[in-house]
Design a protein that fits this description.
This protein has about 625 residues and is α/β, with parallel strands linked by helices. The chain folds into four domains: about 60 residues; about 180 residues, P-loop containing nucleotide triphosphate hydrolases (Rossmann fold, 3-Layer(aba) Sandwich), CATH 3.40.50.300; about 90 residues, Orthogonal Bundle (Helicase, Ruva Protein, domain 3), CATH 1.10.8; about 200 residues, 2-Layer Sandwich (Ribosomal Protein S5, domain 2). Helix content is about 50%, strand content about 15%. Strand 10 and strand 11 form a beta hairpin. Helix 4 runs antiparallel to helix 5, helix 11 packs across helix 13 and helix 15 packs across helix 16. Bound molecules: adenosine-5'-diphosphate (ADP).
């Protein structure tokens, strides 16, 4: 019993001691924590004070507009009164940081040596004479007036023709910093101008952001893809762009976030776009358009040999390796592995070839190893050919005409087929066609109907037949008015069963009176015809002036015919083949004896009526079918 009692007493003693110890520990822990918190508070106050002092110093030293200095001082005063960790303080701090980080008066000195600029532009780019000249003129004027005035330059052309890299060269030539901002998909004004500071997470817009990134107040600012900007209920970004680009207004550009005037008048803005008609019209008014058309195969070959291959060889670490890239190999790449107006895919494919060579070289590096790249070797490295361009048909065909189209790859041959079946005058159009091309098909049908008598057709032919007009390559969407003459020729050929020359390609819009109206993209179209080995191109008379853009060798290889009316087109495309056509009216028409003035309806009616009566009598005698 005694023993048990002693043990219990010891246990009790221990427990009380442990308890005491624990209480003491807890107290200590609590006090410690409190002390630390107090110290921290004291420290952060210190830190906060330091921060404010530092900001004050930065504001004092930074060169800014008067307005900005005043605003920042005010903001700093506000910040001093705030609790340093509060959300508002973070917002104010962020604002002050943004304003301080802007290059208000930090500018780079302009190099305005026009000859040097010319040299740099030539060094970076092959060809592109006109755009280069225009840029040089621009720089020369700048040198004289010392201030950027006048319209903004806008480089318009298909992808990969060197718009961005030209702009970069301008920056290099003038010694300015370069910033690029893509406007593709911008649909909100706030993206350009920023959000007001009342929004949580508000930021300055893209313009101020770009300027800040460039670190100078006079960079070359590239507004990429200005035609891809769209508009929705949140406002129209093009209105904000107007202010940015207008030299009368942009010395005081207001970003919603900054809420201060920022001077953009020293910035050299350049724009790029893929197509003109999708640039909002008020913006287009403020710009001077410089068009960059696609390259011919010869251009591409030269660009590849002089620029792309050396560049890619270096980038793929193959500088010391003996690689002989033959012309044949480059041509193989141009014709069968790329389909484009520019040279971007060509550059990519060149890189692909060089990468594969790099792999082989690294696997088994032997001394003095050399690679000879020719067409076959390209096929071996890159696999089967990917593209073919449309070629002309082998034989002259009925109801089959070569049109010419302007696509994002430059130009291409656009064949049109028509088949006629008995029916009730329905017109079916297939081949992924847009509204404009459909309308021009209907106009062609109407025109052919109106001219039926002159062409030797039964005036009521449409009551017995259905037309099906088809554009092969159904997967490629097609639109635009320039297939008018092609469709009309195709219809006439199918109706009269007169074949069309296979070596002729044509382009032109028609109106209901049969006039041929001018079209765009003649150079690309002609280059496509050249590639397809077409020998005669029929185009609208008014496009005659565009021929000076076309390379000499192409002009030599192709005969051009300029049409005023669809009758001219028909005569050139059908004539030589149909001289012995059984239809006498057609023969007369093609021979040029029938009245051709579409507006001289009365006399042509009379002539046609007489002739028609004669014809019908003949036909009845010979039992000849109408078509
Ligand atoms: P874009 O902006 O018109 O879509 P890029 O300027 O990005 O095209 O050009 C794509 C590539 O092609 C760049 O690497 C560029 O250097 C090259 N390139 C385009 N045109 C030429 C040219 N005339 N001479 C040399 N390189 C060119």
């Amino acid at each position: 019993m005694q023993n048990e009692i002693e043990i219990l007493q010891v246990e009790k003693k221990i427990r009380t001691r442990v308890k005491k110890q624990m209480e003491k520990n807890q107290k200590e822990y609590y006090l410690n924590e409190q002390m630390q918190a107090i110290q921290k508070e004291l420290g952060s106050q210190d830190e906060f004070k330091n921060e404010i002092a530092e900001l004050e110093e930065r504001i004092r030293r930074k060169k800014m507009s008067k307005e900005a200095v005043e605003r920042l001082k005010k903001e700093l005063k506000k910040l001093k009164m705030m609790s340093p960790m509060s959300a508002e303080a973070t917002v104010v701090r962020n604002y002050i940081d943004v304003v301080l980080a802007l290059p208000w008066f930090d500018r780079t000195e302009d190099k305005l040596d026009v000859e040097e600029a010319e040299r740099i532009l030539d060094e970076d780019h092959y060809g592109l004479e006109k755009p280069k000249q225009r840029i040089i003129e621009y720089l020369a004027v700048q040198k004289l007036v010392k201030k950027i005035r006048g319209p903004i330059l806008c480089l318009v052309g298909p992808p990969g023709v060197g718009k961005t890299s030209l702009a970069k060269s301008v920056a290099r030539a003038t010694g300015r910093k370069f910033v690029r901002m893509s406007l593709g998909g911008v649909r909100d004004e706030a993206e350009i101008r920023g959000h007001r500071r009342t929004y949580i997470g508000a930021m300055p817009g893209k313009i101020i952001h770009g300027i800040r990134k460039s670190g100078s107040s006079n960079p070359v600012f590239l507004l990429d893809e200005i035609d891809k900007m769209s508009m929705d209920f949140r406002g129209d970004p093009s209105a904000a762009m107007l202010e940015v680009l207008d030299p009368e207004q942009n010395f005081a550009f207001v970003d919603h976030f900054l809420d201060l005037d920022y001077d953009l008048s020293e910035v050299l803005f350049l724009c790029t776009a893929n197509s003109l008609h999708s640039i909002p019209i008020p913006l287009r008014d403020r710009m001077e358009i410089i068009e960059l058309t696609g390259y011919t195969d010869e251009d591409k070959l030269k660009i590849a040999k002089q620029y792309l291959i050396p560049k890619q060889t270096e980038q793929n670490g193959l500088e010391g390796v003996d690689i002989q890239f033959g012309d044949q190999a480059v041509k193989e790449l141009i014709h069968h592995y790329t389909k484009e107006a520019g040279v971007r895919s060509l550059e990519r494919e060149t890189a692909a070839v060089l990468r594969k060579i790099a792999r082989e070289h690294v696997k088994a590096p032997t001394k003095g190893q050399s690679f000879k790249v020719d067409g076959k070797y390209v096929q071996k490295l890159l696999g089967p050919r990917k593209y073919r361009f449309n070629r002309a048909e082998e034989t002259d065909a009925i109801g089959m005409v070569n049109g010419l189209a302007y696509t994002t790859f430059g130009g291409d041959l656009l064949p049109v087929e028509t088949t006629i079946t008995s029916g009730k005058g329905r017109v079916t159009l297939t081949g992924q066609l847009g509204d404009v091309i459909k309308e021009s098909a209907h106009a062609a049908v109407t025109y052919v109907r109106a001219r039926s008598l002159v062409l030797g057709l039964d005036p009521d032919f449409h009551e017995f037949v259905d037309f099906h007009i088809h554009f092969p390559e159904g997967a490629v969407p097609k639109d635009g008015p320039s297939a008018g003459v092609t469709i009309a020729t195709c219809l006439v050929s199918a109706l009269l069963r007169a074949p069309v020359r296979k070596d002729v390609a044509m382009t032109g819009e028609i109106n209901l009176r049969g006039k041929v109206l001018p079209i765009g993209g003649l150079k690309e179209k002609v280059l496509a015809a050249y590639r397809a080995e077409i020998t005669t191109v029929i185009c609208p008379r008014e496009n005659e002036k565009d021929l000076h853009d076309i390379p000499k060798n192409v002009l030599k290889a192709i005969e051009f015919k300029f049409a005023d009316t669809i009758d001219d087109v028909l005569r050139w495309a059908i004539a030589p083949l149909a001289e012995d056509h059984p239809n006498a009216a057609l023969r007369a028409f093609l021979g040029g004896t029938a009245p051709t003035e579409a507006d001289d309806w009365r006399s042509s009616r009379q002539w046609v009526r007489d002739r028609d009566l004669r014809e019908r009598a003949d036909r009845a005698r010979e039992n000849e079918p109408v078509h």
